[in-house]
Amino acid sequence: MLPVQVAAFGRLSPWSVPANILVAPLYEATFAISAIAAAIGWFEPAATAFGFVARFAPAAFLGLVRLLARLPGADIPIAAPMLLGLAFYALLARGTSLLAQRAEVSEAPALAPSRSSHLGLTVALAVTAGGLWIAVLTPQPALARVTVLDVGQGQAILVEDGGRRVLIDAGPPDGAVLRALPRLGATGALDVLVVTHADADHAGGVREVTRRLGASDVRAARGVTIPGNVTHEEIDIGDRIRVSDRVTIEVLAPPVATLPATISSRNDAALVLLLRIGERRILLPADIERPGEQWLVASGLDLRADALVVPHHGSTTWSTQEFLDAVQPRVAVVSVGARNPYGHPAPEVLARHGGVQVLRTDESGDITLRSDGSRLWVAPQRDRVPVPTRTPRATSTATPAR
């Protein structure tokens, strides 16, 4: 299975065999506990008592797996061509043939298989294994990829499909986005750069991105002045950006016709984008606050989305329950800097996401959503690492928090 694992995941785990041997007893215990829990789960008192007693085996299983995963060399990125996998199976077949030739002949020599039959069986197994390997690992149509980049206290989102790249916002002016993009292999020019609003934590990196990488098409909200006076096209509510045959980005807000009466701050003038990948939907509300949310809910627009990039980095100025009820996300992603002075994301905002999987860039690094148009996979760069919180600093009403 080694070539299959390498080709499927692009990673090699040298410790996988001894790790499986070590965790096997705990895995079997966990499986048995799961079966029992499924059978008695309908009777809450018994299930609660059983869970209290039996929880230690699954906990030990997970703990041992995590410990083994931290061993040096436990996870090695590798890109192996298909020919290397075929060579592996050819060597495996040859080794099997040599072992078969050395096997002891049975007590009935006349009935023992000949060397030619051994060779024929080896060739048949090699052809079958190689054919299955090619059939299983033939690349399927590439998945569309949406990555909320870890750029600290700011936001930058990379959309990729069909060989095209669209960057939505460019993070703060400290160059974090230029360090983040190479992690995804995005080192060439961008096809489209979208700037949702002019705040430094979203637009601060635009000047360096356009200077070092280049973007053939730059678009921004109406009235936005981009740092560096980058030439751009204004886009309004209803405009769409076509990334590929299955990926489109639609502007849902701001309500340009009623500005500025509808909004209370420039954050509510930020572009709210709905990203569609076939049947899957991802909502990107930038830094909108309560008035912007209220307008969206009252507009009658279909706000439902499989994933939501939490507005305003989880600030208390957003996230009304009505808005969350309208979106109904299954995954919420917070783009936020570690130990930021604003206290983002606010605990009360996170509490409103009960039952929703919440991922944070300060804990999980780059967070990638992949989709084939009908299914959606979530892949954080690293396992969650809790970040110590910091008491938010006071902000005056004249200077809104970033």
Largest sheet: 8 strands, mixed
The level of helicity is 25-40%
CATH superfamily of the largest domain: Ribonuclease Z/Hydroxyacylglutathione hydrolase-like
Alpha-carbon Rg, integer: 27 Å
Query: Which structural class best describes the helix and strand composition?
Result: alpha/beta
Helix and strand sequence: HEHHHEHHEEEHEHHEEEEEEHEHEHEHEE
Q: Could you name the CATH topology of the largest domain?
A: Metallo-beta-lactamase, Chain A
Task: Please provide the count of β strands.
Answer: 17
Query: How many structural units, i.e. domains?
Result: 3
How do the strands of the widest beta sheet line up side by side?
8-7-6-5-4-3-16-17
Query: What's the helix count?
Result: 13
The pLDDT mean sits at 84
Report how far apart the termini are.
50 Å
CATH architecture annotation name of the largest domain: 4-Layer Sandwich
Report on the structure:
The protein has 3 domains: 2-77, no CATH class; 82-137; 144-380, Metallo-beta-lactamase, Chain A (4-Layer Sandwich). It has 13 helices and 17 strands. The chain has helices at residues 2-9, 16-40, 44-54, 56-69, 82-102, 115-137, 176-180, 200-203, 206-212, 290-299, 321-327, 347-351, 361-364, and strands at residues 11-12, 76-77, 144-148, 157-161, 164-168, 192-195, 218-221, 233-235, 240-242, 247-253, 272-277, 280-284, 307-309, 331-334, 357-360, 367-371, 376-380. The strands form 3 sheets. It has an 8-stranded mixed beta sheet with strand order 8-7-6-5-4-3-16-17, with no helix packed on it. Strands 9-10-11-12-13-14-15 form a 7-stranded mixed beta sheet. β11 (272-277) and β12 (280-284) form a beta hairpin. Residues 387-402 have low confidence and may be disordered.
